[in-house]
Amino acid sequence: MIGWSGTAAGWMGFEGDEKLCEAITKATGIPATTSVLALNKALDIFKVKKLGLVTPYLDDVQESIMKNYNAIGIEITSETERHLRIVKNSDIALVGQDVLETAAVVRFGPVQRVFNKNREPDQWSGLAKSSNPEPDH
């Protein structure tokens, strides 16, 4: 498997990554994916219909991401997303854990959790379980 970790397909549309992976696979004979396509596959496997999202992006990019996911049946709303509005790409590396923990409040109806370093691993996975069924496989 060849993995490309770019995330632009989130806001530019998934088709570009699909074509990129097809080209890589055709050229190498090795299956390929991207981080966005892998996320989409996981969302499908776990039958996720609502997604919490924290990104470093500006308003226009975040709105495009939300639109693209809503178009494939994954609900991201202003209640389930946070974006940090970082202008300079290199400033993303300066975002600390405390900022991410504060930003990562995810609300799905009556379910509300805050990610933090004190959570046990099963509590992290419980977020998806609280609003989505187990995968079929």
Could you please describe the fold and organization of this structure?
The structure is a single chain. By secondary structure, the protein is an alpha/beta fold. The chain is built from six helices and six strands, in the order E-H-H-E-H-E-H-E-H-E-E-H. The chain has helices at residues 9-12, 15-28, 35-45, 59-71, 97-103, 121-131, and strands spanning 2-4, 32-34, 53-55, 81-83, 105-108, 111-114. A hairpin with a 2-residue loop joins strand 5 (105-108) and strand 6 (111-114). The longest helix has 14 residues, at 15-28. Residues 106-117 and 119-137 have low confidence and may be disordered.
Estimated helix fraction: 40-55%
Per DSSP, the total helix count is 6
Major sheet description: 2 strands, parallel
> Could you state the order of secondary-structure elements as H and E?
EHHEHEHEHEEH
- Strands, count: 6
Portion in strands: 5-15%
Major beta sheet, strand line-up: 1-2
Poorly predicted spans: 106-117, 119-137
In angstroms, what is the radius of gyration?
16 Å
- State the end-to-end distance: 21 Å
Mean pLDDT: 79
Provide tags for this entry:
137 residues, single chain, two-stranded parallel ribbon, 15% strand, 6 strands, alpha/beta, 6 helices
Concise summary:
This protein has six helices and six strands; from the N terminus they run E-H-H-E-H-E-H-E-H-E-E-H. With 137 residues, the protein is an alpha/beta fold.
